[in-house]
Amino acid sequence: MNTYRPANNNPERCAIVIGAGIAGLLATRVLCDHFPHVYLIEQDALPATPQARKGVPQARHVHLLMVRGRRVLDHFFPHLDAELFNLGAIPLDWYADVRWYGPAGWMAYGGNGLITCSASRDLLEFALRQRVVADRRVQVFTRHKVAGLEVDAQTGQIRAVQIMPCHSDLTARLALTADFVVDASGRSSQTARWLNELGYGQAPKRVVNAFLGYSSRLYRRPSGIRSAPWKALIISAQPPDCFRAGGMFAIENDQWMVVLMGGGGDYPPRDDAGFLNFAHSLRNPELYQVLKDAEPVSPVWHYRRTENRWIHYERQAKWPAGLIVMGDAVCGFNPIYGQGMTVAALSAELLDKTLHSRAGLAEITTSFQQQLAALCAWPWTMATGADLLYPTTAGGENAWHARLAQHYLNQVLIMATKYPDIYQRFVRVMNMVDPPSVLFAPSVAARMAIGWFRR
Fold first, then answer.
1. What pLDDT score does 453 carry?
2. Residue 244: beta bridge partners?
3. What is the Cα–Cα distance from 307 to 212, expressed in whole angstroms?
4. What is the side-by-side order of every strand in the sheet holding 205-208?
5. Structure pTM?
6. How far is residue 100's CA from residue 165's CA, in Å, rounded to a whole number?
7. How many CB atoms lie within 10 A of CB 445?
8. In the chain, what is the greatest distance between 2 CA atoms, to the nearest angstrom?
9. pLDDT tens, residue by residue, 277-302
10. Which residue range or ranges hold the Squalene epoxidase domain (predicted)?
11. Cα(164)–Cα(373) distance, rounded to whole angstroms?
């Protein structure tokens, strides 16, 4: 097997990123501030325009970039907002532009100022990728897959990553030497297997699966007098009574991205008539009323891999110095809740902070995984708590404190239909701008208690 070192660079100052999705691009951007040379390894060919690729099967579906995520991206990629808007992305104000029929009825939206960027995953990833690959410190290996890790048996330090061209035999392996490796390869990550093969054992894993599936389709967005007075429409499910939900978001190219979702195996159909009939069956008819006369401009796409999965690497007794795992490779949420890209952005922010600590590699890597677990805890609780409302959900611990938290959140959602300020608090927490504690403020709890008393 051949060994490759970058020309004119100290091999001890090289980093490797596995995966060129959102998490991988963010990790690469951060590592460029700390290493003179960064390899980015990706199985797919990377398109020169905003378009879907094989390694991101969920890309054709709605991807919500939460407000906190947008702010982090704009920090690492200055003026990214302006670039995305120039490419056709839509500014979306969660206070003013979203019409949301929640579990308790229409949300009492009002005000303005909680703005994010509504765009396809393809457009966002394209804009990030163009910035990253233009950096002279980055060398990209496309159409290559990672075959394994190499760890120094004496020091426990990551030493190299074995890569090979896709569709080639094992003899074509190449060892890329580096002293820092980030696995951001998503749900298909092989790190757990590689570590087990190297004698590090298996990290514990949790899976919570509500058997949600969704179908998406693009529609032409009318302009002028026929345009909607909002930029996003959401019709929530109401388990255990109603397992179906839907939404539509304005994106680039004057299009609506429409998604229909069903839980407990009640999936939206694949045919045109079935797609519309499913929309007609939602708890509120408004989405169907928009779709029935709209012009579809794409086929119906489907996605079923929606389980929440968390590999607890932070609990592993032994860990190679210089290896970290982030993004869906460590904690993947049910994508219907739109948390993944923002958690990836926050993980990149954490990586930057940890590398700035100037600690040793062993301390950096273990500290990162431990802090990442703390970062993922609340989004995990939100996603799995919502999924556990479906009686068909497998896995998860529906403990008393989880049930209590979900009951309290249900009361908040009821109040959000009456009070715009409660709705604003809720969407700020959902967008990870504010901590969950703002939902427990005295002004919220007092009105909740009054509501209970009046019943």
1. 65
2. 262
3. 8
4. 205-208, 308-311, 331-332
5. 0.93
6. 47
7. 13
8. 75
9. 999 999 999 999 999 999 999 999 99
10. 302-362
11. 31
